[in-house]
Amino acid sequence: MEVQTRVDVFEDIFLVFLALGALVGIVVIAYTLYNAYKYRDSGDRKAAEDAPTLGELPTGGSGGKKLFLSFGLSAIIVISLVVWTYGMLLYVEDGPDQNPEDGIEMEVEGWAFGWDFFYENGVETSGEMVVPADTPVWLEVTSTDVWHTFGISDLRVKADAIPGEVDETWFMAEEPGEHTAECFELCGFGHSDMDATVEVLPPEEFDAWMDEQLTMEITLEDENEERVTDGFELELEHENNDEFDEDLQFTYSDNEFENGSITIDEIEQGGPYELVITADDYEDVEDSISFTGPVDETYELVDPDAEDEDEEDEEDEEDEDDDANDEDEDGGDDE
């Protein structure tokens, strides 16, 4: 089923009103000129001629049938136009009648003075919205501080961003390109610069961009900045794993790493992840990763034996210093 964009709807309304307005204007002007010519004062008008006299309400001829017909046609046209326009505006308000899973959903959060975008798969961007072309985009708009209004003029979309409330709207861009999202509510000294880039990509390029956002590269090194290549295991688990239908827990062994590094691109849900690295010869590493965009992290694995040796060396050095101090004190007493 072909989906009309908001731009298409408003263009259709504009063209229909323009065509009807032009038609009515032509008819009225033509009829006015016709009557001006027909009832022109030629000086030889006959008394029996059907013409209105000064101060008399014209009947329109034939007992007012013409007048009744003109009022009737006008009423039918106006009512039909109102009903049709109302139906089109309902479509703009409710969106296309299709499964929302066929589009993408995201939250838009306004703040003084910028915009943040949260995709349903956990990816987050700030100051830039990236969407696929020819795909409905469903928005839930809110604010973290004061009243704002999110709008993209080129795509005929606008929604209030009010703290504590959510305003739902949608749009669809037919062609790839770049647009600007702006704030249309005076919200402070930075209002005029409160904008964001809206980049519309072909669907295949959007999928590639999204895959890039959900890419995690992990590198393991020892204290000498040399790659650790074996004897370890990496575990990742989403902090809200219980809230999802699929299991968001992943385990990677050392043989899946290449020279101590691994690129993980199989995870389709972003968000906060707990990372645990267990190793045979090193201390365990625990960390929390905010996987809302591309991640590139390097972790240093610490050898506990090396730490013990360092502590022993430090103790030996302290003992030597103490002995030296004692000798100095004894020498001073002899003097």
UniProtKB/TrEMBL annotation:
Q: Where is the Cytochrome oxidase subunit II copper A binding domain?
A: 101-212
Q: Which GO terms describe its biological process?
A: ATP synthesis coupled electron transport
| Subcellular location field | Membrane
- Annotated membrane-spanning segments are 13-37, 67-92
Instruction: Give the molecular function GO annotations.
Output: copper ion binding; cytochrome-c oxidase activity; oxidoreductase activity
* Compositional bias annotation for Acidic residues: 297-335
Name the membrane topology term. Multi-pass membrane protein
Question: Which coarse location class describes where this protein primarily resides?
Answer: membrane
- Enumerate the UniProt keywords alphabetically: Copper, Electron transport, Membrane, Metal-binding, Oxidoreductase, Respiratory chain, Transmembrane, Transmembrane helix, Transport
Q: Which GO terms describe its cellular component?
A: membrane
Q: Give the matching InterPro entries.
A: CcO_II, CcO_II-like_C, Copper_CuA, Cupredoxin, Cyt_c_oxidase_su2
Does the UniProt entry include the keyword Metal-binding?
Answer: yes
Which Enzyme Commission numbers does its entry carry?
A: 1.9.3.1
Region (Disordered) residue spans = 285-335
Which family is annotated? Belongs to the cytochrome c oxidase subunit 2 family.
Query: Know the name of this protein?
Result: Cytochrome c oxidase subunit II
Name its species: Salinadaptatus halalkaliphilus
Query: Lineage of this protein's species?
Result: Archaea, Methanobacteriati, Methanobacteriota, Stenosarchaea group, Halobacteria
